[in-house]
Amino acid sequence: MSKRRMVRLAVVLLSLLYGGVLLAGFLAPYDPAEQDREHPFAPPTRVHFVGPEGKLPLWPFIYGLKPSPDNFAGYQEDHSHTFPIRLFVSGDNYDLLGLPCRLHFFGIDEPGRIFLLGTDGYGRDQFSRLLWGGRISLLAGLIAAALSLLLGMILGAVSGYFGGLVDDALMRLVELFLAMPWLYLLFAVRAFLPLHISPTVAFLLLVAVIGIVGWARPARLIRGVVLSARERKYVLAARGFGASDFYLLRRHILPQTMGVFLTQAALLIPQYILAEVTLSFLGLGVGEPVPSWGNMLGSLQQYHVLASYWWMLAPALALVPVFWGYHVLADFLHERLEFGD
Amino acid sequence: MRKDIYLALLALALVLFTAATWAQTSKSAAVKEELQTSTGEAGQYGGRLVVSQRAEAKTLNAVTGIDQRLSREVIFRMHADLIHINRVTQRTEPALAKSWTVSKDGRQYTIHLRRGIRFSDGQPFNADDVVFSFQVYLDEKVHSPQRDLLIARGQSITVQKLDPYTVLFKLAQPDAAAERLFDSVDILPKHLLEKSYQDGTLAQAWSLTTPPDQIAGLGPFRFKKYVPGQQITLERNPYYWKVDAKDNRLPYLDEITFLVVASEDAEAIRFQTGDIDVISRLSSENYALLAKDQESRGYRLQDLGPGLEYNFILFNLNDDTAGRLPDIARKQTWFREVKFRQAVSAAIDRTGIVRLVYQGRGEPLWAQVTAGNKLSLNSSIPKPAQSLSRARELLQSAGFTWNKDGKLQDHNGQVVEFSIISSSSNSQRMQIANIVQQDLAKLGMQVSVVPLEFRSFVQRVTQTHDYEAAVMGLLSGDVDPNADMNVWLSSGATHLWNLGEKQPATPWEAEIDKLMEQQAVTLNYEARKKLYDRVQEIVAEQLPIICVAGPNILVGSKKRLGNFRPAVLDHYTLHNVEELFWKGK
Fold first, then answer.
1. Helix axes A254-281, A314-333, angle to 10 degrees
2. What is the helix (H) or strand (E) element at residue B220, kind and residue range?
3. Nearest to A195 among B360, B419, B431 (CB)
4. Do B434 and A304 touch (CB under 8 A)?
5. Partner-chain contact A303 B419, CB within 8 Å
6. How far is CA B570 from the centre of its chain?
7. Above 90 in pLDDT, residue B107?
8. Under 8 Å between Cβ of B574 and B51
9. Least Cα separation, residue A285 to chain B (angstroms)
10. Maximum CA pair distance of chain B?
11. How far is B160 from chain A (nearest CA, A)?
């Protein structure tokens, strides 16, 4: 595959993923918190194309699941009734960009249940949770990266441009931030927070924490670029014509950092997605019942889940294309913007 | 001539000396060993049993280490008590006490000791050891956890030696469960511990680094070796006082090794691979996992049915929150409303909890006593199924309404919103909390679940009282109601929902106090059971704690292990360790 094609594929893949999680409410057949206590750890529902008599019904359908009475999480297909998969059905309430909505992309008639990626230990639909959880995890990465790049940009530019004492002070601060054992600090901070935090607040806190912790590295890189840019001849010339510091930074110096900025973004976003996953995995992220890829993976800490229910690994698999996409993008931006011209 | 006299004198001395020693030995030989015959299947000698511990036992000191579960698991294999609770029948049976008589008023126990038996170092056992042991346990300066049990409810016990094999215990007031008090009070060797007791260093005695020959007990095994961080090994006590039906002296096993295995999952895996011979306290998930290759790997799992653990939702009813924690004090007006608690109880899907949390290997509960308790269960407690409509009715009759978004609000228009804390390390209780949250959301309650690290969880519940609701569990130490006295008495140290009450805050707590005190001194079993039945009724109705479910006791052992008779009481698998033996080979 040519490089250009690969980049195009990565962009398409990432757009699809982000689009998917933004439309989570529409694409997911169920509410992510809804517990179906008859179906804990149900395996992914098999979608059938061939009917019971070998006829092709021309439209995919599924069978109902019957829990086996003496075996926990053992299920059999109930062939007495078929449930065709329907499109654009009305189901659980959700918010679509602030509007209350009931329309779902697909679903099946009650009392049937469709679990494309199986269910977790509470009988919650993994597919719905994956989409809703992606919203938290992917957006957390995006926002946190934006936050730390913004901070890094401002502090790096100030440090590199003004130099001297300011530079020294900021760079020592950077070193402090890089050396801090963050995980332990976060555990300590969590212990001081009030017990009752709404999921939104928890999410914002999480993003703020990841973003603020991470500003040091981009700040250092941007400082370096600013340091060399400010000695360029055209910058010195502009300064000679009486340009202000702010004008110089905005017009001549910061555009030089664009390459570093975008490459860092493509590197940091997946890194921060992983940070969210790690923190939620350890119970420091958004709390139950709100899903995130991290707290969904948290249940894999238990041996029996890992050993018996492979579909619980779905969020880990979902991370693979995200990472691949961002790394292809970062490679491309690195070549194109920093050394390309 | 002179020489002859000397010789004669010497000969005389020799004769006298021999006679004297002979007389002495014959005197001690006259005390026949009074051994107990075990009822188990007669087995064969040899072999080693490997069991696991989640962390290392901290001490071998029977006086101070008895309240730490890990230490206790090891210590109890090395010692014996006077009267023992049979873990299977849940009744008392003779141990070091061969028999006993109770005075009419129920206050005097005359105990006849087994004669001629020896400690694991070969020294004889008699009444002095018993008197010494109780002196140690009852001494305030020693800080033995046993003291609290022995002088529970302010009554003291006095011990008196009547003759070398008879001891008289006097209680200040009659105690219905006095015989059970003797269980797990290990009899100590006076000859080894008296010195450190006199010096006041008893608490430091018998650590894991003490040389094995300085530790002795009357239990089936004695200390052999300690490898820090890895294992503790005990070896067979050749002087043990039980024999099997064929008159062979118990125990059969040569050694027991306690391996340190850090996590529950690691324990399950090592049992699966055969590194560990016996596993107790299996979780239902791991039980299901291990059950799959039971046949091929030669082990056998057993579901013993409900144990004595009860898990519950606890609302903060402490009255020291006013002013200090205004937010919580405001919400307590809901929690104190009994109809609110009843509505919560009615909304909980207990069968769902048993299915999801215990994978069906558990029991839904409506009061504190589980079906595992053969002695005290009140089986007529009503067991209503989950009913949201009943819950809504109750809330409505208590003045709660629903706003247009379907959220529950009180008569002041305050939205009902609270958090449930639980220990993050206990995944089963976390699961219960998450299920309850979903059930209560259906009533329009905004509930959030907050996982807390174990220590800060305990601190909030027992000390700062800075919580709204909690999911917790308690494990009764015994089937007798006296074991839970500290939970139900309003002055009790585990009266969790309202700690440190000066006097009962509600009429029903006053009634429970009265019933509990009365049952403790009622000697007739039926009359006593009636009293405790009433306590269970009050708990089910007033819901100071909302009991939801309890797990079954799940254990496993190698198939070749003979006489394996696990029980639902503590020391689930090793209570009859002296009878365990390896079949075949």
1. 170
2. none
3. B419
4. no
5. no
6. 5
7. no
8. yes
9. 11
10. 126
11. 54
Distance, in Å, from the CA atom of A174 to the CA atom of B555, rounded to the nearest integer, reads 54
Q: How many residues does chain A have?
A: 341
A chain contacts of residue B355, beta-carbon cutoff 8 Å: 37, 40, 72
The conformational region for residue B178 under phi > 0 = left, psi -120 to 50 = alpha, else beta, is: alpha
Strands (E), chain A: 61-67, 75-84, 86-96, 99-107
| Span between the terminal Cα atoms of chain B, in Å | 71
- SS3 of residue B254 by DSSP: coil
User: What was the pLDDT predicted at A341?
Assistant: 42
Q: DSSP assignment of A81-101, as one string?
A: EEEE-EEEEEEEEEEETTEEE
A67 touches chain B (CB under 8 A): no
- Beta pairing partners, A82: A63
Distance CA B424, CA B422 (A): 6
Buried b (16+ CB within 10 A) or exposed e, B55-70: ebbebbbbbbbbeeeb
pLDDT at B574 over 80: yes
For residue B62, give the amino acid letter: A
B356 neighbourhood in chain A, CB within 8 Å: 35, 37, 40, 121-123
What are B181's two structure tokens? 């008090």
Report helix angle B338-347 to B388-397, nearest 10: 170
Whether A127 contacts A85, CB under 8 Å: no
C-alpha distances out from residue B493 to B74, B152, B498, B539, Å? 27, 12, 10, 18
**Chain B: residue nearest A302 by CA?**
B265
Out of A72, A198, A303, name the one closest to residue B268 (CB).
A303
Q: Which residues pair with A172 in a beta bridge?
A: none
Question: 3-class secondary structure for B38-54?
Answer: CCCCCCCCCCEEEEEEC
Of the candidate ranges A24-38, A62-76, B160-174, the one whose mean pLDDT is the lowest: A62-76
Q: Which helix (H) or strand (E) holds B223?
A: strand B221-227
Return all residues near A311 (Cβ < 8 A) that are at least 6 apart. A43, A44, A117, A118, A126
Q: Cβ(B202)–Cβ(B142) under 8 Å?
A: yes
CA atoms within 13 A on the CB side of B283: 20
pTM (2 decimals)?
0.83
When the pLDDT of each residue in chain A is averaged and rounded to a whole number, the result is 84
**Distance of alpha carbon A33 from alpha carbon A128, whole angstroms:** 9
- How confident is residue B27, by pLDDT bands cut at 50, 70 and 90? very low
Q: How far is B359 from chain A (nearest CA, A)?
A: 6
Nearest to B307 by CA among B377, B222, B407, B235: B377
* B97-102 and B92-94 strand pairing: unpaired
Do you know the residue count of chain B? 585
pLDDT per residue as tens digits for the range B291-328:
888 888 889 999 999 999 999 999 999 988 888 888 89
Beta strands in B365-495 (DSSP E): 401-402, 408-409, 417-423, 446-452, 469-475
- pLDDT, one tens digit per residue, over B392-441 is 999 999 999 999 888 999 998 899 999 999 988 888 999 999 999 999 99
Cβ separation B449–A288 shorter than 8 A:
yes
**Cβ neighbours around B93 below 10 Å, total:** 13
- Provide the residue type at A85 as one letter: I
What are residue B451's DSSP bridge partners?
A: B422
> Do A181 and A120 meet the contact criterion of CB atoms below 8 Å apart?
no
Q: Is the pLDDT of residue B50 over 90?
A: yes
Side chain identity, residue B135:
Q
The shortest CB-CB distance from A122 to any of B356, B418, B467 is to B356
> Is the predicted pLDDT of residue B357 greater than 70, yes or no?
yes
Q: What is the ipTM score, two decimals?
A: 0.81
CA distance A316 to A328: 19
Predicted local confidence at residue A57, as pLDDT: 65
How many angstroms away from the CA of B137 is the closest CA of chain A?
40
